[in-house]
Amino acid sequence: ETGVTQSPTHLIKTRGQQVTLRCSSQSGHNTVSWYQQALGQGPQFIFQYYREEENGRGNFPPRFSGLQFPNYSSELNVNALELDDSALYLCASSLAQVTEAFFGQGTRLTVV
Amino acid sequence: KQEVTQIPAALSVPEGENLVLNCSFTDSAIYNLQWFRQDPGKGLTSLLLIQSSQREQTSGRLNASLDKSSGRSTLYIAASQPGDSATYLCAVIRRGNNRKLIWGLGTSLAVNP
Question: Which residues of chain B have a CB within 8 Å of the CB of A44?
Fold first, then answer.
């Protein structure tokens, strides 16, 4: 196991609702990245946090937002959920921005 | 723009075969390349990381090579087992300010007993 934990593991939400996903990074890791993986696709980069600051963002609308806390754990918030937001959301932690990335088990979000 | 391609998209082999998975990338300006394994509906397990200055990495029955100049990496799996059945993804971190992983679509491997 990697030491990266995500919660919850599964979630069902209604279109228009808001959701918060959580990630605890591996001990000693200061960088957390979030990815969205649709069925049959490779992961798509949402954003990265390094020492509590956003450090890069992918092509996702502003309703996708995040936080990193002083203990380097992180949250991903999605407002005004759409059906297309249904996906596996993956969190990765690393010691620095370009070192080996370790992933959690993911959160499966279903929007109905 | 960095693009990552994996060939083949799917592979089915009998148990015991040695096999090679291919990954190619368009921009050789990378920090590193990482190979992952993903079981259906699960998260990603890191298999091997190759730094841009390295040529290969080995872990057990797995060997990954990197040829940065030609934009290619291969993952060699020796003596395949049914438990190796999964999707294998490669990803690169390109040099520059936006240090995200850029992914291929993966190779779906089935090892048949």
Answer: 103
Tokens representing B60 are 């057990």
Give A70-81 pLDDT, tens digit per residue.
999 999 999 999
Tell me which H or E stretch contains B22. strand B19-25
Write the pLDDT tens digit of every residue in A38-71.
988 889 999 999 999 998 899 999 999 999 999 9
CA-wise closest residue to B41 among A39, A46, A20 = A39
Q: Check CB contact of B112 with chain A, cutoff 8 Å.
A: no
Nearest CA-CA partner of B21 in B33, B9, B31, B30: B9
**Nearest beta carbon to residue B100 from set A33, A41, A100:** A33
Calpha distance A60→A8 (Å, rounded): 22
CA distance B95 to B51: 12
Could you tell me whether strands B10-14 and B107-112 are parallel, antiparallel, or unpaired per DSSP bridges?
A: parallel
- With beta carbons under 8 A apart, name residues in chain A contacting B44: 43, 90, 92, 103
